[in-house]
Amino acid sequence: MTSVKETVKEQLVGTTEEPQLSHQARSNFFRVAQKDENGEPFMTEEAFINAIAPKHEDYHKIKREQYGILFQVADRQKNGKLTLSDWATFENLLAKPDAEYEIAFRLFDFDGSGAVKFDTVQGLANLNKSADSIPFDWNSEWASLYTGRTKSRHDMTYPQFSQMLRGLQGERIRQAFHSFDKDGDGYIQPEEFQRIILETSKHKLSDHVLENLPSLCNISTGSKISYATVRAFQNIMVEMDMIDVIVSEATKKSGDGKITRSDFLNAAARATRFSLFTPMEADILFHFAGLDAPSGRLSQKDFAKVIDASWRTPVALAGQTVEKAAAKTTSLLHNVLESVHHFALGSIAGAFGAFMVYPIDLVKTRMQNQRSTRPGERLYNNSLDCAKKVIRNEGFTGLYSGVIPQLIGVAPEKAIKLTVNDLVRGHFTDKDTKKIWTPWEILAGGTAGACQVVFTNPLEIVKIRLQVQGEVAKNVEGAPRRSALWIVKNLGLVGLYKGATACLMRDVPFSAIYFPTYAHLKTDMFGESPTKKLGVIQLLTAGAIAGMPAAYLTTPFDVIKTRLQVEARKGDTKYTGLRHCAQTVWKEEGLKAFFKGGPARILRSSPQFGFTLAAYEVLQGLLPMPGSEDVTPSGHIEPGVGLQSATAPLPYLRSRNALKLILDLDQNIGRVQVPQPENWPKFLQGPKQ
């Protein structure tokens, strides 16, 4: 019975029920079915393959046409057509916890008797054997343990067949080793080992492992491979999923996302009740995972090349000049387009952030430009008083004086800052651990701040003069109001960069403080990770907090910049340069003058960058760059391995796993046309005794 709490929760937030199997079966069936002459829907073998093997999946190791062998399991009437009832039964079979083994059992139990005959298994294996295949003795002691000896064969029940199939690959490898070990010394050549694995286990191993199989002889003295090494290698193959779990947990706890052989064995000991891996097995795992990174400290990406059967050797490593050039060109084009994409999103986010806090910026500018220290001569007593007087004297729109050029200019300014920071951080970020050294973070932020000055300085000098002319008009009768275009023409190109040094000295430390602080707040305070995405409120909070120290600590340079860029009024001191301005302000107004408008600057810069960064990250999620999926540059990583969640349809995943078991018998099963069941007996005869 459900508790009162659960009942109330269901009423408040509702419930979600999984669709019934009959609904799933019907939907999947009619999606690919066709109708016969009587109007009855049915599924052909080709349609069946389309239903269980989506065309977009990766068929690198197990070819798509091989899924057709499972049609023999679904076709209960053995007439080459699946009815809705047949399909529903097959989907129900796929949903069973032991589906992989039961599918394999039903394939070999072709007459539906509930038992598998020894001749059926042997016959189907021999049907796919090529003339140069490594021989396998079906009359061996191992086979007789499951089916009895030649004169007393018995059929195998489902449990017996499943256990036989589980041990089949190991027996094939043992017999193959024995056939190559002509002198009986327990060693074979590396090339012979490679041939054994390619014939028995290719469908379960990655390109990286398959291409480097002969190198296994290097883990011990001598140039040959012992049987103990072969058995250790096989145990590694069997435990790939467990290795993935152990590596994932161990690398998460590592400071740099990398582990050593000792770290792996210690993690394995904690994950199991006894030592799961021998020292030789750990050596083999680290040998293959560390071929491209022989430092002894390996990341999860290094192990993926061993664990994941669908890992592909990248085209760039094929050594073909044309393909390398094409890849390089594509990469360059992608980088350019990515920068354009970042720039566009940064422009929108920057304009949004600037508009939201523009009234605060106007108050900050007027407070910083106020030079008198005597109460009777001051226009404004504080930031709040300034805002009130602006609204009273100039109207609410006075708070937005100069906003148009600000929005026009702030778009490229913020876009440059965000784009450069992203590019520099990306360059110095470790590709394996996704971490960056703090000094590189500071460098990335400082570089971004320096690059933006080319747009910032002209923008701000025009904006500042527009912001203060309202108070001039109020106190100086007949003072004309100037437009942004008039100010630009009057200043000229050189004049637009007046105070640029102070602007540079403000923006470089601001960004060097801001961006690293923002990044660490997201990860350390709010717990952002690849599996946890932050919400808008968290992004706004992180951005606002990061802006506080950055804004206040750089206020002195902002004051100097403002004084240099504002047109001096009659009677005011005219500053000749950055040093003269700093000395004069210190002498005439004291240290406190350097922090004029500091609170307003915090109130403006802190939320502005909070809005800007939050908008930037939200836009990146809403408008991602096409083709920006996270693809490992050194290979393809299959979804649904170990701790990763599988995104492929369950029928495909279960069918794929069933085929992995069936192909332990022979990798060519399903690649050649399998005779119809009524013709199977003549193909299922083993060799004459």
Write a concise synopsis of the structure shown.
The chain is mainly α. The chain has helices spanning 4-13, 21-32, 45-52, 71-74, 84-94, 99-108, 118-127, 141-147, 158-180, 190-201, 207-211, 227-238, 240-253, 261-271, 279-289, 300-307, 321-369, 383-394, 403-428, 438-475, 484-495, 500-525, 536-553, 555-565, 578-589, 598-622, 650-662, and strands spanning 34-35, 41-42, 187-188, 225-226, 258-259, 298-299. The protein is 60% helix and 2% strand.
How would you characterize the largest beta sheet? 2 strands, antiparallel
Helix count equals 27
Gyration radius, to the nearest Å?
A: 36 Å
- Unreliable spans are 7-21, 315-330, 629-646, 681-689
What is the strand tally? 6
**Strands ordered across the widest β-sheet:** 1-2
Strand fraction equals under 5%
Describe the fold and architecture:
Strands 1-2 form a two-stranded antiparallel sheet. It is built from 27 helices and six strands. β1 (34-35) and β2 form a beta hairpin. The protein has 689 residues and is mainly α. α9 (158-180) packs antiparallel against α10.
Tags for this model:
689 residues, mainly alpha, two-stranded antiparallel sheet, two-stranded antiparallel ribbon, 27 helices, 60% helix, elongated
Please give the structural blueprint.
Layout: H1 4-13, H2 21-32, E1 34-35, E2 41-42, H3 45-52, H4 71-74, H5 84-94, H6 99-108, H7 118-127, H8 141-147, H9 158-180, E3 187-188, H10 190-201, H11 207-211, E4 225-226, H12 227-238, H13 240-253, E5 258-259, H14 261-271, H15 279-289, E6 298-299, H16 300-307, H17 321-369, H18 383-394, H19 403-428, H20 438-475, H21 484-495, H22 500-525, H23 536-553, H24 555-565, H25 578-589, H26 598-622, H27 650-662
Antiparallel strand pairs: 1-2, 3-4, 5-6
Helix pairs in contact: 2-3, 2-5, 6-9, 6-27, 9-10, 9-12, 12-15, 13-14, 13-16, 15-16, 17-18, 17-19, 17-20, 17-26, 19-20, 20-21, 20-22, 22-23, 22-24, 23-26, 24-25
